[in-house]
Design brief:
Layout lengths: L1 H24 L4 E11 L2 E9 L2 E9 L2 E2 L9 H17 L5 E9 L5 E9 L2 E4 H7 L4 E2 L9 H5 L6
Parallel strand pairs: 3-6
Antiparallel strand pairs: 1-2, 1-5, 2-3, 4-8, 5-6, 6-7
Length: 159
């Protein structure tokens, strides 16, 4: 029995080391929480579970998309498009909705950016995909120019 335990104890530190190396790549890879309120089409306020008994309210912007603005708009069509995006998010990610935040980072303005997901009976859905699929947001990265919403609004089909 002693001979069997020695190889096990010799390999155990290497298992821990491999686990630590993976977590160093992105130590903020996954958090759970709930929606407190919706700011606009691509930003929510969430109560995030940091560890048992410790939560933090934080504004989280959806990663990889841009939705039309509600304030400082270039035209009335952009404001209405932004309202439509916010309405969809409020229906699907209303207050109290459990969420999962993945691949978390900070953008150039110091805001939390994450893949925001909600559970729907059989799988986790991405907020970004839901908005893009409904044509209420476009794919966008932090280093891109502002989206020309008023120009895009000229070709938008509203149901």
């Amino acid at each position: 029995m002693k001979f069997l335990l020695i190889p096990l104890f010799c390999t155990f530190p290497f298992v821990l080391l491999a686990q630590d190396e993976r977590s160093i790549e992105n130590p903020y890879a996954l958090y759970f929480g709930k929606v407190i309120r919706v700011i606009d089409g691509d930003t929510i306020i969430a109560e995030v579970d940091l560890w048992p008994g410790l939560t933090q309210e934080i504004a989280v912007r959806a990663k990889g998309i841009d939705a039309p603005e509600l304030r400082r708009v270039g035209c009335e069509e952009e404001r209405q498009w932004g309202e439509d995006a916010k309405d969809l998010v409020e229906k699907s990610y209303g207050p109290g909705t459990p969420i999962r935040l993945e691949d978390i980072s900070i953008d150039s303005f110091g805001r939390a950016i994450a893949d925001i997901r909600r559970w729907r009976s059989d799988r986790w859905l991405y907020l970004s995909n839901e908005l893009v699929d409904q044509q209420l947001a476009v794919e966008w990265e932090d280093d891109q120019d502002d989206v020309p919403w008023c120009l895009l609004a000229q070709t938008r089909e509203v149901e």
